[in-house]
Specification:
Helices cover 41% and strands 13% of the residues. The longest helix is centred in the N-terminal third of the chain and has 12 residues.
Length: 226
């Protein structure tokens, strides 16, 4: 039996993983959601790593999974938790790369969107500020959609310009990638180039909410537990 530590993006909250956590638990696995939180001031990444690490147990077989913006935090979380990770799993997530910023990652995922967001942030705006109506197509269930929207953490520009470190010696365990949406194909292709196992689902970024059964099955397969 494995223990799964599911890390939401720092832009989102536990709702983005809750249904997958329930599905994995129903299949007999220990599961927890390790949420990265901060006090709203820089530096953000050490606060995220420390907050998530508190929830991560020291077990023999730990699968550390990050969704979206949580991907670059996984090495720092493992380092802060002093845990023995069996598998790092990136779910429609950015990959760790020492010294890159979230703006760098956003531009890599979508150059046009990155430019738009940067312009919005330079004008004093925050991102993301999705509404219930904007996410309803991605998350058709009204209650599930409202839960994700309620937990959104819109960020100012300084958040996007913070360099994200990768501890020396990482990766120290096997890694795998689950691509849910075409927006993360560049990350999936990079993971494939690194020799990692990659699974592609033609779905959406919030497939963790929409179809937790399919996501849980893919996670178990990529973790060698299917």
């Amino acid at each position: 039996m494995a223990c799964f530590a599911l890390v939401p993006s720092p832009f989102l909250g536990p709702s983005s993983w809750a249904s997958v956590a329930s599905e994995l638990s129903a299949r007999g696995h220990a599961v927890l959601i390790a949420t990265p939180v901060d006090a709203g001031v820089r530096p953000y990444w050490p606060q995220h790593a420390a907050a998530a690490a508190i929830a991560v147990p020291r077990v023999e077989k730990l699968v550390l999974a990050g969704h979206g913006g949580a991907g670059p935090l996984l090495p720092a979380i493992a380092d802060a938790a002093h845990c023995n990770v069996a598998v790092y799993l990136f779910v429609d997530a950015d990959l760790p790369s020492h010294g890159v910023t979230r703006m760098d990652l956003l531009r890599t995922t979508d150059l046009y969107l990155g430019a738009q967001v940067d312009q919005h942030l330079r004008a004093g705006g925050r991102h993301p500020q999705w509404t219930d109506a904007e996410l309803r197509e991605a998350i058709p269930d009204p209650r599930a959609c409202a839960g994700v929207v309620a937990e959104l953490k819109a960020r100012h520009r300084d958040f996007f310009l913070e360099p994200l470190p990768v501890p020396a010696g990482w990766p120290d365990a096997p890694c795998a990638y689950l691509r849910l949406s075409k927006a993360y194909e560049p990350a999936a292709a990079r993971a494939e180039g690194l020799g990692w196992p990659v699974r592609r689902l033609d779905a959406g970024h919030f497939h963790t909410v929409v179809d937790p059964e399919e996501v849980a099955t893919a996670i178990l397969d990529l973790s060698g537990l299917g």
